[in-house]
UniProtKB/TrEMBL annotation:
One of its GO terms (biological process) is transmembrane transport. It is a multi-pass membrane protein. It comes from Tistlia consotensis USBA 355. The chain crosses the membrane at residues 39-61, 123-145, 152-172, 192-209, 240-261, 295-317. It is found in: Cell membrane. InterPro entries: BP-dependent_transpt_permease, MetI-like, MetI-like_sf, OppC_N. This is Peptide/nickel transport system permease protein.
Amino acid sequence: MAIAPEEIQVSPGLFGRVIDGGRRFFDGDIFYAFKKSPLTIAAFVVTVLMFAIALSAHWLAPFDTMNLSSLNLMDARLPPIGWQFNDGGMMVDPDPRFLLGTDEQGRDLLSAMMFGLQISLEVGFASVILAAVFGTLLGLVSGYAGGRVDSFIMRVADVQLTFPAILIALLIDGATRTMMDPDTHQAFKLPILILAIAASQWVNFARTVRGSTLVEKNKEYVQAARVIGIRPSLIMIRHVLPNVLGPVLVIATLSLAIAILTEATLSFLGVGVPATEPSLGTLIRLGQNVLFSGMWWLTIYPSLVLVILVLAVNLLGDWLRDALNPRLR
């Protein structure tokens, strides 16, 4: 029997599924709520702009501040455009090459902020991803296994909650300093910083995922998977995990802002990223050392960028929490 052409079903393929998924997203409630919130749109635009600047810093920055051989001390202590600087009784005029002025080493502040933003976001993202993976796995195991395993993991989490995040990061940094020689510690300072921040944030992910897992593991689809003999590890990964990722996404967004602030605080205290690769926190610390000499721009501009970035990410996280929770709509 011949089959009519209209009865033949063709697989849409990956591209078709992507197009269909995008169409459903733009027609969904989340995108509708996003369009109705001008503050969220502004926060999204600012966040995307910050990320774009950080990712393209090597191409957008007027000067390569990472290359110390390119610095010229004759360009040091120049004020921003539109300002003058009284340096020991001598008025210093701005240089049009340096829009936001320079520091004591002749480093262009605008370029340094672009590279600093890149490092701050790199540390923030890496630490949040590490904390999310580790905390989510522990939360899954704790909630699904229960018993002594659950009690042990949650007691460890309770003990860690008694310590501030900054203190935990300082303890990890101090421990690694004693176990490594100075050159090795300097070479691994960035991974150590990421590990220290992640170690202070995994608890939020673990406790949230544990609570969601306790609810999901008693539902019918999990019981059915047990009956047909699927291994517990596969049940957690294939069935439970996709249903608890909503809160994880919200926590990750809010934790990104906290991680950026934690990195800035540690760098301000001198235990963050190396001074040769300054983040926003390092730039603020270096500017604070010469603040009373009148070089205010070295502290004000990096601080403004840090405040705007953290505020935009926090606003996105708050909106995402409300959008993914039907009770708050």
